[in-house]
Automatic annotation (TrEMBL):
Belongs to the PIGX family. GO terms for biological process: GPI anchor biosynthetic process. The keyword ATP-binding does not apply. The keyword Transmembrane helix applies. Stabilizing subunit of the glycosylphosphatidylinositol-mannosyltransferase I complex which catalyzes the transfer of the first mannose, via an alpha-1,4 bond from a dolichol-phosphate-mannose (Dol-P-Man) to the glucosaminyl acyl phosphatidylinositol (GlcN-(acyl)PI) intermediate to generate alpha-D-Man-(1->4)-alpha-D-GlcN-(1->6)-(1-radyl,2-acyl-sn-glycero-3-phospho)-2-acyl-inositol and participates in the sixth step of the glycosylphosphatidylinositol-anchor biosynthesis. Probably acts by stabilizing the mannosyltransferase PIGM. This is Phosphatidylinositol-glycan biosynthesis class X protein. It is found in: Endoplasmic reticulum membrane. Pathway: Glycolipid biosynthesis; glycosylphosphatidylinositol-anchor biosynthesis. Keywords: Endoplasmic reticulum, Glycoprotein, GPI-anchor biosynthesis, Membrane, Transmembrane, Transmembrane helix. GO terms for cellular component: endoplasmic reticulum membrane.
Amino acid sequence: CVTLDVQAACRDTTVTQELLKEGFHRDLLVKVELGEDAGGCAVAAQVRLPPGIYVDPYELATLQQHNLTKAVLFPGAIDVEAPEYLARDLLLLLFLEPDALRSRCFRAAVPVHARYHRPAQGTEEALVVLESPEVLLCCCHSHLSAECWEPAEVDAPCSSDSTSPCQWHSTKHRPAYEESVLRVPVGLREHNSLVCALTLLTTGLCSGLILAAACKYGHFP
């Protein structure tokens, strides 16, 4: 009976995660509908980004200066030029904004970018899978149901504008979509020989043209 009472008190929190636009440069949209009212609480989604996708910290800083996105990225220093096989996972704490019409609904979007992958055998695309985010609440002046929320090990402030530590809480949630998949175009290994031959031919041709131009128009002592 106690278990049933707890389940009845803890209404499901629902998470929706979408990748908008096309190509290598997308927008990640996260929407959360809480199971209970969270007035006065900060709501965030903790998103784990696999090596195949990243958030540009310089772009994020610019968006935050214009108050368009609020987020904290771990680690803060990222090699945006690294290919997928030399990159590592990232952790994004995305602060969500409340919906003006529905008190329990929150949402936020952030630009994400796909990394280049190794050439594949027999397929022209690689799959980057985004797991469902973790929903977090930071309530400095409110109390959460102990049956529904538990302390989370998140070392981050309650907002992107603050440096004061905060105790975040997490809850089990029901994802509207279990995972999002980004399809990244990749080269074919079968084309390696052709690509190498054309690259060498083009390099030799261009080098010859540059050398010919230098000999014809250059002034040598």
